Amino acid sequence: MELKSLFAERMKLLLPDEKDFQSYLEILQKKQLKSIRCNTLKISPEKLRERLEEKGWKIRQPFQTNPKIMVIESNLEPGELGRSLEHLLGYYYVQEIASMLPVLALEPKPGQIVLDLAASPGSKTTQIVAKMRNRGTLVANEISLGRIKILASNTERCGVTNMVITKKEGAALCMKLKSLGFTFDKILIDAPCSGEGTLRSTPLTYKMWNINTVKRLSKIQKNLIANALEILKPEGELVYST
């Protein structure tokens, strides 16, 4: 893909080594891996792999310490990952490996009180709850009613039972919770962003990219962090990802 001049200039600032920049351009042309995350609220990685291999899918688990992460190496039909019975039953979530990393860093535990400040569509939300084993409380916030419907659908499909959904602008929610004395053991801010990291999967993002959006979202991101820190417990942990 031919990069917009301003976009290319900004990426070169972020990747000043020419080799890194060229590697970035090469990666944009590579086919994206088909990765899924086993939903351990409903099934074990061993049983899920067995079921998927019975369908003729070739499965690879690239990380010995995290067998829940699976890569589908078979050539599937368009939409096959999303319409399989195992997906409809909530046995797995279609999720990029990079998207799984923030929750692995957050390490939410059973019994904790956790806030997912920008939760929809629910990939990280369901991952958080799986690590909590449906014990404790997760507050999943989303400002858009349309996206809340998607969040509710995905979390129900995955068997989430310890979650409260809120609808409010993230910083305003933090201020409200602070006034009520609420604090959290763990907070995830998967902030709204301009999408440079999704160009392989969503080329339309690049066509929509503009510098004004970058600047506007930067202000929102900083505001979310500043207010979320106010409701983090002493010794609590916050993960910011975008």
Radius of gyration: 19 Å
Count of discrete domains: 2
For the report, how would you describe the main beta sheet?
5 strands, parallel
Classify the fold: give the CATH topology of the largest domain.
Answer: Rossmann fold
Shape: globular
The neighbouring-strand order within the major sheet is 7-6-5-8-9
The residue fraction in helices comes out at 40-55%
Beta-strand portion reads: 15-25%
The termini sit apart by: 23 Å
Structural account:
By secondary structure, the protein is an alpha/beta fold. The protein folds into two domains: 33-95, 2-Layer Sandwich (Alpha-Beta Plaits); 99-242, Vaccinia Virus protein VP39 (Rossmann fold), CATH 3.40.50. Helices cover 44% and strands 18% of the residues. It has helices at 5-14, 18-29, 45-54, 80-83, 85-88, 97-106, 123-132, 145-157, 170-180, 204-208, 211-228, and strands at 34-38, 59-60, 69-72, 92-94, 113-116, 137-141, 163-166, 184-190, 232-241. The strands form two sheets. The protein has a five-stranded parallel β-sheet with strand order 7-6-5-8-9, with helices on both faces. Strands 2-3-1-4 form a four-stranded antiparallel β-sheet, sandwiched between helices. Helix 9 packs parallel to helix 11 (211-228). The chain starts with a helix and ends with a strand. The mean pLDDT is 94.
